[in-house]
Amino acid sequence: MARRNGSDKGSEVRGPDDAADRQRLDKWLVYARFAKTRTVASDLIESGRIRLNGGRITNPARGLAIGDVLTMALPHATRVVRVLAVAERRGSFPDAQALYEDIAP
């Protein structure tokens, strides 16, 4: 389909004020494979089992930035990770592991 008036809505240009290194917490949990779906991720967050930089989070739409530390009380273990990157989609397991650094002893 042709674009009118030369507008290029398909390309995304980020300015200096744009937060290209931020992402919704629920999406990041899915992309990093800590949750299978956004619904499961939202349930984890709303139940208070996720901490962001030491503070309890209950809003799935909360922004997550590179360098943030997440403490997660998952069903089978407690994980502490540092966010290294954000993603645009859910990828393979090695791709997901590249999004975080496990910092728990």
TrEMBL record:
Organism (species): Alsobacter sp. KACC 23698
Protein name, UniProt field: RNA-binding S4 domain-containing protein
Annotated ranges, domain RNA-binding S4: 23-88
Amino-acid biosynthesis in keyword set: no
Molecular function GO terms recorded: RNA binding
Entries under Pfam families matching the protein: S4
Keywords: RNA-binding
Keyword Iron included in the entry's annotation: no
SMART domains associated with the record: S4
CDD domains referenced in this protein's UniProt entry, alphabetically: S4 (cd00165)
Coiled-coil annotated residue ranges, if any: none
UniProt region (Disordered), positions on chain: 1-20
PROSITE patterns hit by this protein: S4 (PS50889)
InterPro entries: S4_RNA-bd, S4_RNA-bd_sf
